[in-house]
């Protein structure tokens, strides 16, 4: 108050008080720094864990399975234009050639009609076993019925309907594949969540998209949501849905509309790489590239380039699709030999969360560090 004389302390007491305040300030700053340091160390550890290859060592079969001679194998991918479909098919073709089989590749072209027709063509051509990649058994019932009557076993890959994922039983009188070789899709989802939580410092606001046409997608999303629930400071928007037929038409526009009306969103999860491509491009065109980060799965080269270039997408849950193709051939040999199947049926197909710190060389798919080709070929001798 004006005119009031502020009492003065003796000089000695003033010095003590000043030193005390200074010491308290130093301790407070140190405590803050230690807390921030601990938090940053925890986040760095979480990111490092999320980036680790899973499983970390060989988890495939060790029991020999001698490849029978004179086998014709039909290999049908969901569509040659989709890298996640074609890469396992190409690897299975390679493995079949190495053991002296006669493989024939068919393009499912992304339609149920063409996928059914391709399987029927393979049966007509005398295939002893058929391998399909990313083809839902619900949509190829005619082909499954024909194969069953002909005594031709059908092995699936990447459908997400078998161990270590929740096993999906066919409804009613529907048929299904003998087994499906996928990867641990819920595990991939949980690792994606771990990365997002750590990257955001536990404050992510996440928009999650799913495509319920694919069991592998729903299993991955389940793992993602499970992981995000553990983050008390994170917010997850109501689950958004689309179908594969919408990817190239309106997914990008639909997502941008949501982001513009919900500017608090900081991360977008795309259920597979082809959809992420359209999302990334739409985000850039809408001028939102500095507002959100995109995450996805599969490990397609174009998406890995987005990460490499710093173009909106920041992580990708990549599977070793070539390993998956070899594992499909291994299980096919065991089926033909009437040997026990390896459990879980994915045979340890590895995956890894990729970000800018651990990308494969440009133009290459991510690959496990294990010498799986040599291991498989030795088992098949």
N to C succession of SSEs: HEHEHEHEEHEHEEHEHEHEHEH
Calculate Rg over CA atoms: 27 Å
Shape by Cα distribution: globular
User: Which secondary-structure class do the elements indicate?
Assistant: alpha/beta
The CATH C-level name of the largest domain is Alpha Beta
Number of domains: 2
Count, helices = 11
Find the count of extended strands (DSSP E, 2+ residues). Answer: 12
CATH topology of the largest domain: Rossmann fold
Write out the CATH superfamily name of the largest domain: Response regulator
Residue share in helix: 40-55%
Brief description of this entry?
By secondary structure, the chain is of the alpha/beta class. It has helices spanning 11-51, 83-98, 112-124, 141-150, 185-199, 215-229, 251-261, 273-285, 301-309, 321-336, 372-379; strands spanning 72-77, 102-107, 129-133, 154-157, 179-181, 205-210, 235-236, 240-241, 267-269, 293-298, 313-319, 351-354. Helix 1 runs antiparallel to helix 5 (185-199) and helix 2 (83-98) packs across helix 10 (321-336).
Verbal overview:
This protein has 381 residues and is of the alpha/beta class. The chain has 2 domains: 172 residues, Rossmann fold (3-Layer(aba) Sandwich); 134 residues, Rossmann fold, CATH 3.40.50. It contains 11 helices and 12 strands. Strands 6, 7, 8, 9, 10, 11 and 12 form a 7-stranded mixed beta sheet that branches. Strand 6, helix 6 and strand 7 form a beta-alpha-beta unit. The radius of gyration is 27 Å and the shape is globular. The termini are far apart.
């Amino acid at each position: 108050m004006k005119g009031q004389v502020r009492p003065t302390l003796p000089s000695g007491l003033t010095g003590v008080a000043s030193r005390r305040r200074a010491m308290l300030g130093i301790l407070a700053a140190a405590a803050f720094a230690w807390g921030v340091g601990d938090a940053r160390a925890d986040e760095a550890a979480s990111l490092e864990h999320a980036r680790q290859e899973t499983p970390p060592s060989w988890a495939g079969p060790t029991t020999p399975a001698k490849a029978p001679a004179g086998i014709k194998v039909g290999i049908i991918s969901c569509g040659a234009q989709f890298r996640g479909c074609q890469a396992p098919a190409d690897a299975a073709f390679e493995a079949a050639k190495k053991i002296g089989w006669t493989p024939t590749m068919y393009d499912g072209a992304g339609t149920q009609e063409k996928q059914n027709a391709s399987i029927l063509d393979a049966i007509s051509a005398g295939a002893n076993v058929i391998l399909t990649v990313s083809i839902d058994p619900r949509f190829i019932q005619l082909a499954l019925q024909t194969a069953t009557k002909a005594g031709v076993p059908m092995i699936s890959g990447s459908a997400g309907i078998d161990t270590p994922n929740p096993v999906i039983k066919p409804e009613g009188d529907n048929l299904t594949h003998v087994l499906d070789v996928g990867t641990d899709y819920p595990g991939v989802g949980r690792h994606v969540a771990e990365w997002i939580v750590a990257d955001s410092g536990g404050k992510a606001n996440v928009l999650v998209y799913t495509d319920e046409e694919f069991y592998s997608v729903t299993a991955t999303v389940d793992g993602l949501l499970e992981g995000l629930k553990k983050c008390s400071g994170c917010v997850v928007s109501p689950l958004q849905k689309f179908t594969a037929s919408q990817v190239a038409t309106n997914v990008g526009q639909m997502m941008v509309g949501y982001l513009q009306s919900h500017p608090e969103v900081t991360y977008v999860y795309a259920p597979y790489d082809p959809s992420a491509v359209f999302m990334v491009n739409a985000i850039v065109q809408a001028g939102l590239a500095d507002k959100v980060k995109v995450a996805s799965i599969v490990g397609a080269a174009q998406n890995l380039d987005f990460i490499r270039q710093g173009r909106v997408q920041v992580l990708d849950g990549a599977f070793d699709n070539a390993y998956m193709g070899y594992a499909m051939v291994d299980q096919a040999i065991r089926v033909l030999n009437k040997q026990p199947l390896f459990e879980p049926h994915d045979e340890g197909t590895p995956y890894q969360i990729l970000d800018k710190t651990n990308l494969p060389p440009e133009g290459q798919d991510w690959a496990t560090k294990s010498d799986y080709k040599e291991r498989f070929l030795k088992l098949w001798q």
